[in-house]
Design brief:
The protein is an alpha/beta fold. The chain has eight helices and seven strands; from the N terminus they run βαβαβαβαβααβααβ. A seven-stranded parallel beta sheet has the order 3-2-1-4-5-6-7, sandwiched between helices. The longest helix has 27 residues. The relative contact order is 0.14. GO terms for molecular function: oxidoreductase activity.
């Protein structure tokens, strides 16, 4: 990887599109060099990385890595000697009855959405301890707070992310490392394109803000969390237009 030694460095998982892409844009605009990961869409991620480098004059490395595979994450960190910001954004969904879900499907959801936060954080923390500073931000969901019918595994994984965030924040607070999560409502991304226009319109009407959230708003909040006082840690910030 072509990493600049003294430049601030951020890693964003699941960054080829949607929320991850918007977070990468916000960080690049703030001057961060980037490591961006994806599982299946490397050409798209490489195109995004090249665009960010040209637009912001930063260094951006695109890497194929399955967030649910600890060995893939270890390969990325093997070449790193510093890291300032980690954004755990990689995530997948499953919509259907729990009784129709296979064991493999359950494990895939849990490993991708929850275990991935462990795989990255355990390797990022030693790098942050070197500077006695750092920021870990986990992208969660309102369903992690209240649960959703037909999305039991997804809700369970995001509830786990919330607890992971709170517990790790307490562990790292003495070391001046912040750990927070953003609990997203309905964000206008490809993950929600499985719903019909009629279903999305009904959902929109339930949201007091009367619209879906935009990926760029999540990116803005990530940047605000990084720039926030270090006393802000262990928080699950809900970004949902007043919905839940």
């Amino acid at each position: 990887m072509n990493i600049t030694k003294n430049a601030p460095l951020a890693m964003v998982t699941g960054a080829s599109r949607g929320i991850g892409r918007a977070i990468a844009e916000a960080l690049a605009g703030a001057g961060y060099d980037l490591i961006l990961t994806c599982c299946h869409t490397l050409p798209e991620l490489q195109e995004a990385a090249a665009s960010l480098e040209e637009k912001y004059g930063i260094t951006c490395t695109a890497v194929t890595a399955d967030a649910s595979d600890p060995s893939a994450i270890e390969k990325i960190f093997a070449s790193l000697d510093h890291l300032d910001v980690l954004v755990n954004n990689a995530g997948i969904s499953y919509i259907g009855l729990l009784t129709d879900m296979s064991v493999d499907e359950w494990q895939h959801i849990i490993n991708t959405n929850l275990s991935s936060c462990f795989y990255t954080s355990r390797l990022a923390i030693p790098l942050m301890l070197q500077k006695h500073s750092g920021c870990i931000i986990n992208i969660s969901s309102v369903w992690g707070n209240v649960g959703a019918s037909m999305e039991v595994a997804y809700s369970a994984s995001k509830g786990g992310v919330n607890s992971f965030t709170k517990a790790l924040a307490k562990e790292l607070a003495p070391s001046n490392i912040q750990v927070n999560a953003i609990s997203c409502g309905v964000i206008d991304t490809a993950m929600n394109h499985c719903f019909s226009p009629e279903e999305m319109d009904t959902l929109r009407k339930e949201i007091p803000a009367d619209r879906l959230g935009q990926p760029e708003e999540v990116g803005q909040l990530v940047l605000q969390l990084i720039q926030a006082p270090t006393y802000l840690t262990g928080q699950i910030l809900t970004l949902d237009g007043g919905w839940q």
